[in-house]
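Homework help board

Subject: predicted structure for assignment chain

Our instructor gave us this sequence and asked us to write out the predicted structure in token form, then describe one feature. I got the tokens but I'm not sure how to describe them. Can anyone check?
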Amino acid sequence: MVAEVAVIGRFQPFHWGHFEYVTEAARHHHRLAVGITNPSPERTRHTGVDPNRSTGEANPFTFEQRSAMVSTSLARLAPHLRPRIVPCDLRSPATLRSSLGDCDVVALTVYDAWGREKQALAEAAGYEVLVLWQRTEKLVTGTEVRRRWRMALPWDHLVPSGTAELICSLRG
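My token output:
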């Protein structure tokens, strides 16, 4: 069994697809680290394979808000998981290694060219990479959750309750 596995994602916001990803990675490993990417505008990776990932509109929630979404949702739904949550800088292999630290494995899901780019980045940072699955379609997308939220359409069924409550509190 690996001592620590890391998952990485923007979690803008943390939704049911992310929950599946995190819990699947944790199922095989003793400890879990959650690396929240694009933790701040100055530590955001800009990539040609998915240029919208780095826009302000695609990143409305702060690192602190996303950390709360992840920790609250996991505490309610998977209380045995007590992840180490860290800001994760994907701008280079060196910044990735510096932000994630000495975890043993980075678990990823691959849906597209961005997933393959993350895999190459983690490998270049010296991590063993475990691809949990390769799919062409996602269960839920943050883009759809954000679209529904902004248009006042039903969205809360797409996210765990901890995430929904935090988002609702932001609307005030």
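Reply (TA_rk): Your tokens look well-formed. For the description, you could write something like this. Helices lie at 16-27, 63-77, 93-100, 113-124, 142-150, 161-171. That's the kind of observation they're looking for.
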